[in-house]
Amino acid sequence: MNTFRSNNMEGPCNYQPCRNGHQFPMRKADTCLDFLCEYYGKTLNVFTYHRCYAVNAYCYKCRHHGHFARMCNFHVKSCENPKPKKKSKSNIQRDSDRMRTFIEKKQMSQFPFQGLEDKELSTITCSIQDESAKQHLNKLKASHRISLNEIAVLKYENSKMDTVMKENVMLRNSLDELNLERLQHVRLIQTTERELAEQTCRTENFEIEIVRLKEENLSLTNTRYRLTMDLKSKEMQDYHVIKKLKDEIQRLNIQNFNDIREHQDLLHELSIAENQIESLRTNYSHNPHQRQQRGGYRRR
Predict the structure, then answer these.
(1) What is the tens place of the pLDDT at every residue in 152-181?
(2) For residue 211, what are the CA distances in angstroms to 31, 197, 220?
(3) Which of 26, 50, 79 delimits the end of a domain?
(4) If residue 34 lies in a helix (H) or strand (E), which one and from where to where?
(5) What is the mean pLDDT of residues 267-275?
(6) Mean pLDDT, residues 226-252 taken together
(7) What are the φ and ψ backbone dihedral angles of 52, each rounded to 5 degrees?
(8) pLDDT value at position 38?
(9) From CA 300, how far away is CA 294, in angstroms rounded?
(10) Residues 18 and 24 sit within 8 Å (Cβ to Cβ)
(11) Which of 221, 246, 264 is the last residue of a domain?
């Protein structure tokens, strides 16, 4: 909210803080409300039943009713100062003197004799002659050195604790990773156990099948042996039959050979007989008189 105030405000208004113990200035009555109106722009001593004057005001900046132009936010200039003002040497010296005086007063306020009069202070400071204050100061310095040493030790222990905490964090992270790996290995072991159970079941089935196949193989072996023996006995029988047939064939061949020889002999005898007959015919053809005498007829 812009708190710009003009010198042309109506009515007597006091902007200074009250010095008589009141919280805000009093004007028309003992009980009133003192506040800065966001429409009027003044610190008003307004009764609870009073109405703000800015309700019927007209703003020439934004052309709206309800507030004065000095309280308008239509074209508000930025309060930021891009180029801060550089202090002069005298101002810097003045600020340093003020700060030094403030620090001295702050340090003096921490002593137990701060706020005492000169006489009371003199009664206290007279004990410096017996060097009790120096002894007390030396004790304080010694205790301060001891405190510094303890602080250094505590800092060292704190650094060690920080290192231990970092290592603890790293160990926790590694422990989490190991837990994850352990869970993965547990899952892998469970999967392997399930597969092993399945393989065991399959192995049992295979063993049962192998036993069955062995029994079948034994039965087939026995059957083959029996068939082999039957085949051998049959072969022996066939061999004897074949031997008998061969002997019979050989006998028949010999008999056939003998028949062929007899047949050849007969053919030879027949050829001899034919030759004789042919010779007789030739002889008869050369002697026709003998043929007519015998009563034959002439062959044409």
Answers:
(1) 999 999 999 999 999 999 999 999 999 999
(2) 115, 21, 14
(3) 79
(4) strand 33-36
(5) 86
(6) 90
(7) -70, 145
(8) 52
(9) 17
(10) yes
(11) 221
Number of domains present in the structure of the chain: 2
Element (H, E) at 290: helix 288-293
Tell me the C-alpha distance between 45 and 109, whole Å: 41
In DSSP terms, 215 is beta-bridged to none
* CA angle centred on 216, ends 210 and 222, rounded to 5°: 135
The pLDDT tens digits for 75-116 are: 655 555 556 678 888 999 999 999 988 988 887 776 665 555
- Residue 6 is predicted with a pLDDT of 44
Distance CA 275, CA 285 (A): 15
Residue 34 bridge partners (DSSP): 45
Contact status, residue 46 vs residue 32, Cβ threshold 8 Å: yes
Q: Tell me which residue has tokens 């547990």.
A: 186
CA distance 33 to 13: 13
36: domain range?
Answer: 1-79
In the three-class reduction of DSSP (H, G, I as helix; E, B as strand; rest coil), residue 36 is classed as: strand
Confirm whether 125 is domain-assigned. no
Question: What pLDDT, on a 0 to 100 scale, did the predictor assign at position 84?
Answer: 67
Q: What 3-state DSSP class applies to 65?
A: strand
Please indicate, yes or no, if residue 205 is contained in any of the structural domains.
yes
* Any domain includes 47: yes
Within a domain: residue 71? Answer: yes
